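Record format v2
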Amino acid sequence: MAELPHPLSDEAFLDKLQQSAFDYFLEAANPANGLIADTTRDHAPASIAVVGFALSAYPVGVERGWMPRVDAAERTLVTLRFFWNSDQTERPEATGYKGFYYHFLDLKSGARVWRSELSIVDSALLLAGVLTARSYFTENTQNETEIRELADALYRRADWQWARTGKGTVCHGWKPECGFLNYEWQGYNEAFIVYVLGLGSPTHPLSESGYRAWTATYQWEHLYGCDFLYAGPLFIHQFSHAWIDFRGIQDRFMREKRSDYFENSRRATYIQREYALRNPHGFKDYGENCWGLTADDGPGAGTLSIAGREHRVFAYAARGVPYGPDDGTISGPAALGSLPFAPEIALPAVRHLYERYPEAARNYRLASSFNPTLSGSGPHGWLSEGYFGLDQGIVVLMIENYRSQLIWRLMRRCPPIGAGLRRAGFRGGWL
Amino acid sequence: MPPDKYSSGTIPHDDHDRELLDNVHPPTWRNPQPADKYTLVVLGAGTAGLVAAHAAAALGAKVAIIERNLLGGDSLNVGCVPSKTIIRTARLYAEMRNAENYGAQVPGDIRVDFPAVMERMRRVRARISRNDSARRLISAGVDVYFGEARFTGPNAVAVEGKTLRFKKALIATGARSVTPSVPGLVEAGYLTNENVFDLTDRPPCLLVIGGGPLGCELAQAFCRLGSKTIIAHDEPLFLPKEERDAAQLVSDAFARDGIEIRLNTTAVNVRVEGKQKLVDLVNDDNKSTVAVDEILTEIGRAPNVEGLNLEAAGVEYDAHIGIRVNDFLQTTNSRIYAAGDACLEHKFTHTADASARIAVQNALFLGRKKLSALTIPWCTYTDPEVAHVGLYARQAREKDIPVKTFTVPMHDVDRAIADGEEEGFVKIHVRESTDKILGATVVARHAGEMINEISLAIVSGIGLSTLARVIHAYPTQAGAIKMAADAYNRTRLTPARKWLSTRWLRW
């Protein structure tokens, strides 16, 4: 058990969690180019999505007193200069192409690694961070002026139209070796930010029909006594929402359903908890305060037998509710990522995690995941090794949105976000 | 054209196949002398042709039916009947291996006797073939002709040197497997549904190209019967017509069974080295080669429209779509109708059956029955099975119909838990704010049995609130449908109604 002679207040507890997550971006950064390692594991490359979270976290650090503003501006500027000056040719080892970037880059050189794909959604998460910086650094200093200019240039360079499929929806990605990948963003998923930024682009905008084609694949389901726009993994209900304040604004779909995407994420969070209470596969410890299935690290490929029933076990995978995959792996960052939507159940879940599985929150930093059903490195079963940048990013941003709505407020005054939402048919509320 | 097993001598294998042939293509058959004029001549004696011939004869029509190969068509000989028969044995083997899940002992020595599996299949097929036999047709008063049919004019067709004149005709010539255009495949040899059931030895390693219904069913069956099985499908998910969760559950089941899954993967070349077939596969920028003993392809079906001299009859057709028909199944020659796989998008046995009944009614009794009015369910017999009827949620949204789905995971259904068959769901789509059922998808061990209740509800105009009033025997897996209906009823308890109810009860 953690040594807590006097339990921290909620505010102090969240502050420690948030600062510890924030520190990841200082520890895992290459100060020379602003790139951030995907994980703390040896030889981890940089992830462009993690850089997007880092760029959004710096303003939080400034406002929380964890980082001087000039340092935050300097880090941001180094990052934006790197991407602006990066190789955008068709060479396989370039950093990006058509204003988008490869999913994984060499931390030092910034060149593409692992033959990774030119990732549209990860580029969108990066650009969301770029635009957060654009909204935050508004002073007329030389650095902050350059940040705004570079941010505009980076956003305007992304050729969303190039990334469209024949149906107007957006493709997952592209590789110089084989062209566009045979996937497209369909159904409710983390690509929301792709469509909003793509629709808001002043240079290469997506069409409204593409957004309609995407939302035509939505599934409005009544599950466990609750109506919601279905998506299995919890991160889908959180990632775009880290930047966009969906409270009270509705597109055509949500007007029809008399709901909004914020409320939807709240319901999705409750459904995750309900699933854990029902615990259909009998995994250890699932319950009222132990839930959260998302895209996260896992024990690795193999099988697990519970009462004679074989279950597949996965490495990093998008786990989801209610159809799985579910191998007994729980994500603490997933529960915390729902803090703004359902604090009354998210906070007790994180407190429970901290008290029951302290090894999964050493120094208040949350491991990607743990699995009490499987024996492993931790005293309470398998524990993900090291830390993942995406987890730390969602923790910093969602705690901040819960505490001050800083990121939401910054992005509410970001013109591309407003333009993109309006073109997607959003009305009402702060719009 | 499909291989003619009868003339090529690939069958009979044994007494079962001899019985099959005695029923569906008697070796000593002699075609009868044609009548002066037939009320109805049916081309093709698969499901659609047989149903039409029996229905018309029962109504008093003078009927002739022409078959070039085997009565019963694909469904009996090389489709539903043999595949479901071996799927049953494959399930049994899977259950034996999974005995511990049921608190039972796993048998010590699970050896698959593949020849015995196929022998059982032939026995079952021979028995079921009695329903489709020439004898039964004759006793119904139908003249049976074996041979290639060829129109000689708008109201006559020739077979084996004889001319059959008709008032009306029905084209029910079916469809055949499409051969993938993979270089080297034809030279290396490959299996389709038309010859895979002739196997008597289990292929040690099998590559299935195509993740549609038949490819998925047979990949799982052969894997469970002990073949090392690889399935390559050129899209991101199997069963591309089905909803993503259903396809994903099938994919999960395949992985549990040990099938090597290659999604988004295209076979680009085949070559033979020794006794093995080497197949080059491409997935995005990854290239690999697999060495297998057999290749089974299932990438689609093409209508049998060639060789019929349709031009002489004034019947328009398309090599890919098939015979052109209107909603009444009438071709461009008003005397000639079509039914089944030769003209339909949904190439299922039960659709062939239903379309044949419509065609007979419309052809002989000036009926105005419409194909579009049919409610057509279908099922892919993987484990779990995937069954669907009506609209998908996506189709409803594309038609601007506000849709809401009532979802019941099978792991919440008592009988599914008791059966250890918890994979899957019942999803029933209704028009938002009403109980009108638009469609449903069921993924469950016995989804094919369960979907019929929802089809009945749709055809009868029964909504979810009525289904909630239907007492379902407890415990059954179909109770999941009742649970979805009950969930609908609970949504009707609006805050105002609840307030009224509370007031009443306190009074």
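The interface with chain A takes residues 98, 100-103, 234-236, 243-245, 248-249, 252, 255-256, 264, 284-285, 393-394, 397-398, 402-407, 409, 411-412, 420, 422, 425, 427, 432, 487-488, 490-491 of chain B (CB under 8 Å).
The mean pLDDT of chain B is 95.
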